[in-house]
Amino acid sequence: MKQLITFLIISLTFSLVGCGFKDIDKRFFVVSIGVDKATNSEKKYSVLLKLAIPDAEPKMGAEKFLVMSEESDSISEAVRIIKSRVDKELDFGHAKIIAFGEDVANENIENIMDWFTRRRDIQNIAWVMIARPTAKEILKLKPKAERIPANSFILAFGEEGTETPYITSTYLFKFMRDMTELGVNAVLPIVELGKEEDMFDINKLAVIKDGKTALTLNKDETKTFNALYREHKKMSIYVEEEGEKFMVNVNSIKRDYKINADNNNQPYVHYDIDIVGTIEEALTSVKVNDIEKYGELAAKASKKRVEELLRKFQKEGVDPLGLGLRYRATHLGEEEVKQKKWQELYPQIEFRVNVNTKVDGV
């Protein structure tokens, strides 16, 4: 028995020595991954890895990083080739940003997403985005206020820094789930080069259908989408109605909707939206006694924007709000039958939007 125990201890010791552990100074931490279309060869993709170089005393605007690229027909092969060009092991445990170039997103990203979800050391809570014009240009940005490589995107998407209704954040696990789920379309934020040097803009949104970009929303449509999608409170409503021009700062927003498609009458979706806010800025004279009127004008302007966005989704045959998912969840029957029924109903749906806006003060 003693001999057996001794043998097991020796075997365990040798297995731990060869387990593949490497010290931190022998690793490159991959903080961002980008995928563009290949331009210099007949390969399909150009894969980019943003590698953070550790610094004992990080200073503002002095972050150090490398952007390594390789063209290949597969991401896994490109990564292995990049590993042959560096002297340290690549560690993907800190890869929180996945960027697809606009050309890749316009073709098909469904196939290459498989690698990101299957690789065990890439977090499912990584943020996914579309880089315009290319992932290479976005990954090479070096904002002056950034202390850690890629941290600006992490702060923006995680709302740990800026909070704005123009940014729509998408986790890797949610993006994959919405890509494969029936009754909903996945969405991705679009990151563009900013007007200032080494800065970026995130105020547009792409709706994905059949693995590629089917519709792009401008910044106003993106803000309206976020109000409906996740009831983003830190937003404002610009009102230009009946000769009045003012801005309402939203303090709270609640929305609910019901789908009525169970009879032979006109199928419709009834949206109820309740908004409470204050007039933050006015370009015309504002009278305290007319607060109720201003609330009605703000409701009118909001209703118009919501209806236009819903009809735009319907016209393009996309459903990023998941109306079809709600229909499937509230009806009995086989899933394929319900999905087919919804696809027949969606082009005929009438949107009835009711907005109640209460203005607390000026």
Main features:
362 residues, alpha/beta, 9-stranded mixed β-sheet
Give a quick precis of the structure:
With about 350 residues, this protein is α/β, with parallel strands linked by helices.
Describe it.
The model is unreliable at 14-19 (pLDDT under 50). The protein is 32% helix and 31% strand. A hairpin with a 7-residue loop joins strand 1 and strand 2. The protein is an alpha/beta fold and 362 residues long. The N and C termini lie far apart (85 Å).
Shape, principal axes of CA atoms:
globular
The topology string of helices and strands comes to HEEEHEEHHEHHHEEEHEEEHHHE
- Low-pLDDT runs of 5+ residues are 14-19
Tell me the span between the first and last alpha carbons.
85 Å
Share in β-strands: 25-35%
Count of alpha and pi helical runs = 11
What is the number of beta strands?
13
Radius of gyration: 25 Å
Oligomer: single chain
- Average pLDDT works out at 88
Helices and strands: which structural class? alpha/beta
Biggest beta-sheet profile: 9 strands, mixed
In helices, the fraction of residues equals 25-40%
